[in-house]
Amino acid sequence: MRLDKFLCTALGITRKEAGKILKEKRVEVNGEIVKNGALKITDGCDVEFDGNSLHMTGPKYFMLNKPQGYVCSHVDDFNPTVFVLLDEVSPEKLHVAGRLDADTTGLVLLTDDGQWSHRITSPRHVCEKVYYVETADPIPASAINEFAEGVQLRGEKELTRPAKLEILEECAALITISEGKYHQVKRMFAAIGNKVVALHREQVGAVVLDENLEPGEYRPLTEEEIASF
């Protein structure tokens, strides 16, 4: 994480205020005065402000607008991971609460709080997810009832849980599901003879993707968003 961002988070100040105290030579990193806000801070750094040590405390919660082509794992041999988009201390300690495929875009939640993410991803907890989907062929009106009754996925013994389908255009819809089977949305449309050509997650539970976040950008969750799970 950049030093100026670290100061903003640790002290609850603006980037402008962080720049001011750096210029005033009030910040030391590992015993040396630092004025460069772009300096990268790691877990091993000792940061002091006016002689007082600063620490990042408490669990972390973020929302990210995932771009296409990024994977939700820490290591991948072929694609960049979402964690390279984070300007945070020790991003390797974070994990994704509900992964998206490399070609799926939209809302990704990241945290270092295992119990919190479990409430999102565990099949025992019903957490709805809303996706915007575009298909290769027109979506028949009959799909609304088919999805509401549950779809038989190839290789699965049981039907999917009831899903809500809202057809927006001939080849575009919103789908709300409450489980997270492998490639579920794509397989649901495949089960009715259609193919998903674009998939974007807009909402997880009560948390809606911030429309101000461009692809690749992220922000901390609000207290209300965190408490919604």
Automatic annotation (TrEMBL):
GO cellular component, one term: cytosol
Pfam families named among the record's database cross-references: PseudoU_synth_2, S4
Role description: Responsible for synthesis of pseudouridine from uracil-516 in 16S ribosomal RNA.
Protein name: Pseudouridine synthase
Source species: Photobacterium halotolerans
Leader peptide range in chain numbering: none
Domain of life: Bacteria
Listed Gene3D superfamilies: Alpha-L RNA-binding motif, Pseudouridine synthase I, catalytic domain, N-terminal subdomain, RNA-binding S4 domain
Keywords: Isomerase, RNA-binding, rRNA processing
GO molecular function term, any single one: 16S rRNA pseudouridine(516) synthase activity
Family membership: Belongs to the pseudouridine synthase RsuA family.
Catalytic activity: uridine(516) in 16S rRNA = pseudouridine(516) in 16S rRNA
UniProt GO BP: enzyme-directed rRNA pseudouridine synthesis
Domain RNA-binding S4: 1-62
EC number: 5.4.99.-
EC primary class: isomerase
